[in-house]
Amino acid sequence: MYGAERQQLLAQRARRDGRIDVTAAAAEFEVAPETIRRDLAALERQGLVRRVYGGAIPVERLDFEPGVSLRDQTNAGEKERIARAALDRVPSRGTVLFDAGTTTARLAGLLPADRELTVVTNSLPVANQLATRNNYSLHLLGGRIRGTTLATVESWALDVLRGLTIDVGFFGTNGFSAARGCTTPDPAESAVKAAMVRACRKRVLLADHSKYGDDQFSRFAELSEIDVLVTDEGLDEAALDELKQIEAEVVLA
């Protein structure tokens, strides 16, 4: 197969599947991963894809933010392991915050019944899981609800967060990297996330490996503001070397 033919197929796969994985594509086309990386670089120069950690995404997806149900199905095994690993960071008592996100929602569902916690969240799925637990004092931040993420945003949430001090916060993100920090597509959601980061004494980021290098429009935290990063073993050595430069503790689930 000629390189131009392979690149055409890669562009079609990116539009169909929403992402090209370098390792999988190399195995399918029986070429070296470096060959696929060069193909993706060529497609990026043509404006057809944008390269991200481990592969590339079609440019059409840059304006698309998947909904909760679709995101929850993506890398579900990794998210479950990350949530279970993060459970060790939940205190026996005190105040905790759950940011909106599919992995943070999984962690909320794993919380044991014997803890005495005051929980603050802007996530409807998190609130729905914890609302009937009598030993938890649950506080749902108000504001406009974003249908895409089922998170509350804007001034009602921001006004309350300015007056809070929380022991531990658990955060989700659309993208993260050593260079760009933690990012999300929507500025309104980013503003609430940033206020949550400021409100917490300790911050734990839950993010699977596919989000590394997938930098989004709006940054809500530098990685230097994160105390613990819980991710999975899908990160390669280059990414791990970059993360060793930050001060956060890195946990591989």
TrEMBL record:
Listed InterPro entries: Carb_Metab_HTH_regulators, DeoR-like_C, DeoR_HTH, NagB/RpiA_transferase-like, WH_DNA-bd_sf
Protein name per the record: Lactose phosphotransferase system repressor
Biological role: Repressor of the lactose catabolism operon. Galactose-6-phosphate is the inducer.
PROSITE patterns: HTH_DEOR_2 (PS51000)
PANTHER family: GLYCEROL-3-PHOSPHATE REGULON REPRESSOR, HTH-TYPE TRANSCRIPTIONAL REGULATOR SRLR-RELATED
Pfam families: DeoRC, HTH_DeoR
Signal sequence region: none
GO molecular function: DNA-binding transcription factor activity
HTH deoR-type domain: residues covered: 3-58
Keywords annotated in UniProt: Repressor, Transcription, Transcription regulation
Lineage of source species: Bacteria, Bacillati, Actinomycetota, Actinomycetes, Pseudonocardiales
